[in-house]
Amino acid sequence: MAEVQVQEKGAKGGKVRSKKQSTRVDMTPMVDLGFLLITFFMFTTTFSKPNVMDLGLPAKPKENTPKPPPTEIKLSNSISLLLGKDNKVFWHQEDNTSLNDQNLNETSFDREGIRKIIEQAKSRAADRTKFTVIIKPTDDAVYKNFVDILDEMAITKSEQYGVTDVKPWEKAIYDRKVGNSGTPAAATK
């Protein structure tokens, strides 16, 4: 606390001046106020909420219901997209016997890339109402690429799409195309 000391009158009868002392400010209440403000803002601040993407997944079938037969999608009504490394997308409309290095095509995520290819494949489809996009992320793909391809599904109005694993025959051709050896020893070096 700040204190001021006053001296009594002296014997000379002159003016009595108080002795000037330096004032001292007690900072304890200010520190308390600071902690109260910090606590207030910590409790009232909303932290950043995680961005969540809503995926409409089918309901889990009951145990006693018979399993439906596997759906066969015609190649003329579908396109397969392999999400690869370095933000590249590989696509094809072939089966396991006819897919090779030449018809596993490569494109990018820009407007002239995958969007144009999906629209062209949809326009060439035998039945546009059943056109299906099959998304197959590889181990080299990043999450951002998956989100980008789902955005492209909304932009191109492709309502029927599925996410599945890369088939072994596609993986072998993909590895040859990007130069992966496919062996764990070479991947660690």
UniProtKB/TrEMBL annotation:
The chain crosses the membrane at residues 25-43. Its main location: membrane. The keyword Cell inner membrane does not apply. Keywords: Cell membrane, Membrane, Protein transport, Transmembrane, Transmembrane helix, Transport. It is a single-pass membrane protein; Single-pass type II membrane protein. Belongs to the ExbD/TolR family. It comes from the Bacteria. InterPro entries: ExbD (IPR003400). It is found in: Cell membrane. Residues 12-22 have a biased composition (Basic residues). The keyword Acetylation does not apply. This is Biopolymer transporter ExbD. Residues 1-22 are annotated as: Disordered.
